[in-house]
Write a structure and sequence with these properties.
By secondary structure, this protein is α/β, with parallel strands linked by helices. It contains eleven helices and twelve strands. It has one domain (28-327): Aldolase class I (TIM Barrel, Alpha-Beta Barrel). The chain is globular. It binds ligand PBG. Ligand PBG binds at residues 121, 123, 125, 133, 168, 204, 207-208, 220, 276-277.
């Protein structure tokens, strides 16, 4: 990579017009890359805006089919579902109940829009009274007893018709446990999208209000990753690949682009990045004050995530971006 210096080389020559810039653009965001995360509540006839995430709603199962048709019509290939149950308990039994909120939502969506890829978040935190992602014994989140419950949850999602299951709990060994449970029950074709490198991040703040899943004591640092660590992320990803993950994820995205790039270099598996709630809401809030242009900022962030190495991006802007590509207008 050598070139004659100025004045022979002038980098600005290819920046002169939009068409020239288009021709040499290295990264292109596509609607094919997008996964739209949604919150489903067990209450009926609800479309309730989430205060911390403007433009995002808690949907009841009865209203989901219409929304899903709109999402599919925009060309978005996939959604990720989070459940908000009516009741919670110590062991998160709502997560693996046959008539649980996510299970019901998946059935309704697959019936209405069969081609839309439905990914389910597999975790206990929205369903446990204490808000942790695992079983508590003696004040501690226990790893091994949690695995069986996660495996049951993933299996019940697959039985309801989920196309992909996505464990986000960060227990050790969950991918293997889920793979075994799926394979043992005739779901050997159901892929696992593992939240492989998931950090204990402040950027989940708005989500916890949306999903009502904040831990009632302590925090998640005993199971989610420590933000300063990069090499450890590569080990996490490798372990999940060895356990049978079909796709791997880095989360959050924006503050972890270096991790994304390194994971991209180490594996050929499809790589997803989660543009999390805080990354979305901080731009929304600034845009509402007139401090940032939401469309330009969002596209810059999403393109940067793609440039860093992501194949797939989970983003609350999915509909806005798809609408922009399809109709030329940013709905915001
Ligand atoms: C559940 C889960 C969380 C998110 C996705 N799955 C919250 C958490 O771990 O506390 C965060 C998503 C977002 O912030 O957009 N374990």
């Amino acid at each position: 990579m050598s070139s004659e210096p100025f004045p022979v080389t002038r980098m600005r020559r290819l920046r002169r017009t939009e068409n020239l810039r288009r021709m040499v653009r290295e990264t292109t965001l596509s609607v094919d890359d997008l996964i739209y995360p949604l919150f489903v509540t067990q209450r009926a006839e609800v479309k309730e805006e989430i205060a911390s995430m403007p433009g995002n709603y808690r949907w009841s199962v009865d209203l989901l089919p219409t929304e899903m048709e709109a999402i599919a019509a925009l060309g978005i290939p996939a959604v990720l579902l989070f459940g908000i149950p009516e009741t919670k308990d110590e062991v998160g039994s709502g997560a693996y109940a046959e008539n649980g909120v996510v299970q019901e939502a998946v059935r309704a969506i697959k019936k209405a829009v069969p081609d839309l890829v439905v990914i389910t978040d597999v975790c206990l935190c929205e369903y446990t009274s204490h808000g942790h992602c695992g079983v508590i014994q003696n004040g501690e989140v226990r790893n091994d007893p949690t695995l069986e419950l996660l495996a049951r949850t993933a299996l019940s999602h697959a039985q309801a018709g989920a196309d992909i299951v996505a464990p986000s709990d960060m227990m050790d060994g969950r991918v293997a446990a889920i793979r075994r449970s799926l394979d043992g029950n005739g779901f050997e074709q159901t892929p696992i999208l593992s939240y492989a490198a998931k950090y204990a991040s402040a950027f989940y703040g708005p989500f916890r209000e949306a999903a009502d899943s904040a831990p009632q004591f302590g925090d998640r640092r005993g199971y989610q990753m420590d933000p300063p660590n990069r090499r450890e992320a590569l080990r996490e990803v490798q372990l999940d690949i060895d356990e049978g993950a079909d796709l791997v994820m880095v989360k959050p995205a924006l503050a972890y682009l270096d991790v994304l790039r390194e994971v991209r270099t180490m594996t050929d598996l499809p790589l997803a990045a989660y543009n999390v709630s805080g990354e979305f809401s901080m731009v929304k809030a600034a845009a509402q004050r007139g401090w940032l242009d939401e469309q330009r900022t969002a596209l810059e962030i999403l393109t940067a995530i793609k440039r860093a190495g992501a194949d797939l991006i989970l983003t609350y802007w999915a509909k806005d971006v798809a609408n922009l590509f399809l109709r030329g207008t940013w709905t915001g």
